[in-house]
Amino acid sequence: MRWIVFDYGEVISKRTNALPELAEVLGADPIAFESSYWAHREAYDRGLADLEYWSLVAGQSLEPQVSAQLTKIDTTGWLSVEQSTMDLIADVKAAGPGLALLSNAPSAFGRMVEVEAWSKQFAHLMFSGDLGIAKPDAEIWAALLDRIGAQPADCVFFDDRQVNIDGATAAGLHGRLWRSAAQARTDLAGLGWL
């Protein structure tokens, strides 16, 4: 069976709009907050607990209720999806290839996505925070292929980051850099998959 695997952030979703609100909750300078938010994000995506992440971002120990508030704002901020990508996903689903999602994202975000109606189109939802490994690590491609029961050549992987595409390609998948849903359609048509 052929599989089409999508990244989430800035492929399925729009870029988060939550950073100003998060900074406001902490009473932080928005520019300094954004820098800290991204500086610690990889560790969060690899399984760092919510409270530890937000305490690092804030530069101080936070109470669990503040961490929970920040986590809710953050996950909600990433839930706005691109309609053109949703249309592509629906067309892929109708055409027959299997659909999977592989995202570098914290576990808390994974739990939010799992209850979104659109996520039901995917046979598999995989989040780095649950796995303790992240793209572009070689281990994550092995975990993906094991989960979906596929050979690398039977998978097309879309991501907006070249380093992740390079990792997928090195693992034998058909890696395609995400530029737009229209470009993805062209890529899939070129492979004869759509």
UniProtKB/TrEMBL annotation:
Transmembrane segments: none annotated. Signal peptide: none annotated. GO terms for molecular function: hydrolase activity. Keywords: Hydrolase. InterPro entries: HAD-like_sf, HAD-SF_hydro_IA, HAD_sf. NCBIfam families: HAD-SF-IA-v3. This is Hydrolase of the HAD superfamily. It comes from Kibdelosporangium banguiense.
